[in-house]
Amino acid sequence: MSEKRKLEFFLLRYVPDAVKGEFVNFGLLALENGANGAALVDVRFTKDWRRVQCLDPQADLDVLEALQREIRQEIGQTRDRAALLQRMEDSFSNVIQVSPVMPALTAKMASVEIEDVARMFLETAKLRASREPAGRQKILETMRGEFERAGVLSLLAAVPAEPYTKSGDPFQFDFGYRVGSEIKLFHAVSMRASVDSAVMLAARYPGIAPAMERVAGAAPMLTAVVESGLDKTRDEVTFAWEMMEESRIRVAETTEMAGIAETARVELRA
Q: In terms of domains, do 173 and 62 share one?
């Protein structure tokens, strides 16, 4: 059995308007920690610039393609990860931003693993003949229904991330309650059509959790509720699922909600 390697992935995002914050992923970096530091081991870029041009018809593709060449020259040479990422952002006045780190343990070659991840984030998804229009909304409805049946819905509240991150952060966990020295959090995460929200939750939570514990004086325990019957043979689903678990997020399917709601009823003595 081959030894697993610890890679770190970063998305490169084109952000033409910092106020709106809208972005398009156009590049993916893979770094690997070694004895001599973090080396850039591989890189992928979008093969179709139409998504960038759709967001910003005035986008300078020559500049973006020049950035590709510059980054490719860094492969196998850069050892200062922080300096590399900061230089990319500084060079383009925040028009190009780097995503939070997405760690991954893999037995695959870096080139194979990054190809799989690039397919998830850089390629335009193909439309399916039949598509559920609101995966997250359906999960939320199931969660609300089970909490209501257990008689605890009125005792739960959304938990904003802003007190534990930065002013203006719009993210909030869907449901939460405090019991003893713990804060139980529950968040609906749809992975049927796209795993982006699962990956971003896994990337953000390790930064939110310690701040919440410090400020609130209670340890957060997050459960991500996903659709039942997901196809776990899909590499992107497995990747996102494992990433959440590595970030200490419990992953539960909607079929487990009745039990989760009953536990909440007991803990809240409803």
A: no
Task: Report how many domains make up the chain.
Answer: 2
Q: Using an 8 Å Cβ cutoff, are 39 and 29 in contact? A: no
pLDDT at 26 over 90: no
- Domain of 101, in residue numbers: 5-122
Which of 122, 151, 182 terminates a domain? The answer is: 122
Higher pLDDT, 227 or 114: 227
Q: Report residue 156 as tokens.
A: 């739960």
Q: Could you identify the residue written with the tokens 């003949």?
A: 129
CB atoms near residue 91 (< 10 Å): 12
By C-alpha distance, which of 263, 255, 176, 162 is closest to 221? 176
Per-residue pLDDT of 43-79, as tens digits, reads 888 888 888 888 888 888 887 887 778 777 777 665 5
Contact between 178 and 157 (Cβ < 8 Å): no
Q: Look up the pTM and report it.
A: 0.60
Q: Are residues 258 and 154 in the same domain?
A: yes
User: Do 97 and 161 lie in a common domain?
Assistant: no
Long-range CB pairs of 232-239 (<8 Å, 24+ gap) are 235/116, 235/120, 236/116, 236/119, 236/120, 236/195, 237/191, 237/195, 239/104, 239/116, 239/117, 239/120, 239/195, 239/199
What are the structure tokens assigned to 176, written together?
Answer: 């939460």
In Å, how far are 1, 19, 42, 236 from 177, measured between CA atoms? 43, 33, 43, 31
Q: What is the CATH number of the domain that holds 209?
A: 3.40.1350
Q: Are residues 9 and 39 in the same domain?
A: yes
